[in-house]
Amino acid sequence: MANVTLTKVGKVYTGDDGASFRAVEAVDLSIKDGEFCVLVGPSGCGKSTTLRMIAGLEEISEGSLEIDGTLVNDVPAKDRDIAFVFQNYALYPHLTVAQNIAFGLETRRAHRSGLIAALTGAGGARRDESQAIHARIAEVSKTLGLDALLHRYPRELSGGQRQRVAVGRAIARDPKVFLFDEPLSNLDARLRIETRTELRMLHRRLAATIVYVTHDQEEAMTLADRLVVMHKGRVQQNASAQECYERPANRFVAGFIGTPPMNLVDGHLKAGTFTANGVAIALGAEYARLGDRACALGFRPDRVKLVAPNTTGSVAASIAAVERLGDRTDIALDTPWGRLVARLDADVARSLREGDAAGVSFDSSHAHLFEAGECGGRI
Amino acid sequence: MKRTPLTNAILWFVLIMGTAAFIFPLWWMTVVSLETPQRAEAAITGSAGIALFPPNPQFANYANAVRETGSVPWLGFVDALSNSIVVTVLVVLGTVVSSSAVGYAFARLRFRGRNPLFLVMLGTMMLPGQVTMIPLFLLFRQFGWIDTIMPLVVPAFFGNAFFIFMYRQFIAQIPESLVEAARVDGLGHIAIWWRIILPLCRPVTAICAVFTFIGTWNDFLGPLIYLHSDESATLAVALNGFKNQYGGLEDVHLLMALSVLTMIPCIVLFIAAQKTFVEGLARGAVKG
Fold this sequence. Notes:
The complex is a heterodimer of chains A (379) and B (288). Chain A has helices at 47-55, 97-119, 123-144, 159-172, 189-206, 217-223, 241-246, 251-256, 346-349; strands at 4-14, 20-31, 36-40, 62-67, 70-71, 82-85, 177-181, 209-214, 226-231, 234-239, 263-270, 273-276, 279-282, 293-299, 304-307, 315-324, 328-335, 338-345, 357-362, 368-371. Chain A has 379 residues and is α+β, with helices and mostly antiparallel strands.
């Protein structure tokens, strides 16, 4: 197991026409030994490219990458002692499950023993090693419940089983770092949640350093010791999942983390009163010191309260849609501030109907303010 | 769609006629190979009709044909057969190994000038063999390769444009992540090609091997040009020994008997590889 440190890492692609595109920019990241680090962001945010640079599948254009304190920028993938789980699993179709799991072990053994060892009669050692490989396969397949499948081919397995074989192949080698590239996105919703839990348990058991990429913020939050939110090739926030949720570093993170997403309204703050589209709400005296500025106001749907229409300190709204989820209900509201979402207790929302008028109010102590602009920082 | 008896009948008729047309030369060859020398010659010159089945089959023709191949009884045939086997095996091996390796490089490695190079390679398919025949002969004579199997075998190890193209198209469909997984697992390009790509290319390899086998086994012109001595002749060239200098036909029954024998490996191979073969052709048709 090992630390992984990225310093000012960037990736620039240059097309045939000489035009260059910066996919990843100045990523600083220090992943501690045994940490489960999740890179999350919308597609095209550079998270997979960053992971592939750590793996050595993609060259690092700028900055430095260290694994266990050793600079590995120019070390080929096979010598970085990492394991990579691909989105499509990339199991070798012509090999059985057991052979797939053993593949990396065997190539490594071949590297070590080599021709000279073979010629100088290291036959005994070879036999020991192949016994060790068998033992390892047995151990891994037991951990992942693959015992009965060892002699099957990948085409004979279900999606979930293939996924487990892919994980098995990774853990068999006992690498320094595990890299996962959206490993659950090809599974159906239910299996995804189950496997997520298994991965989390596996991480604890192996005490492994894991870097995990996903576009699913819920998956990211449940798995991560450390969450790295990326957008447009840059790290937007690098903190625990809870912190990203409670204190988003900027407007992008606020909108990305949490389901349903945070309500964000562009407007103007003056003397502690927030105004947008002609509708003003007093946030309280403590906001007065922030002066007179353009900003975005954010508040989570579960902090929204629906009050009677025209209550002072509320925004007039009409109910556009009611989505009942059992224990809670999501309400979409049309307001002068645009479309807002409220998440209410099912009991509270029982009598609400689409088309009803209401007032939107929220607890200003749980409001967030951000600078204007897409990635405006937290105020 | 439900077929009516009439369309069925038409279909059967067309298929039977087609099959008959393809089988006719084969059957004719077999019939002549079993005739007496006089009847065989009459059948070839057209002075007598062909029997559907020879009235008095001469199975001894086969033994005679084998005995009289080449200049040394029995051993002449063994010589020709082993020459054919050596040349064919080496050519098939060379073509599969080199074409798949080059196809992998064109499909998966990024290097400067890859696409122009690929076009140049495809362009070589446009050159008819007759055009390169004489320059090649002069070149191989410079090398001192005349009357050796080198001119027949060595070019096979430099790839075949058509099969390179087939391999490239097939390999391009193999997910990139398989190659990446192999890289992470510690393989270099050569090992990836050998241990991952080649096993997955089985249908293409079957096509490449069978076509190359049949082409080389039956090749007459190449061995005729480069192999001069009796001992180095392949079966296809040895067959020609049954025709005398003036095109006399007195041994035509033996010629046909040996032709039948020569053809057997091709037929056996084709039947054995048929399934993989059709699978590969169909895949090529859809994705190629």
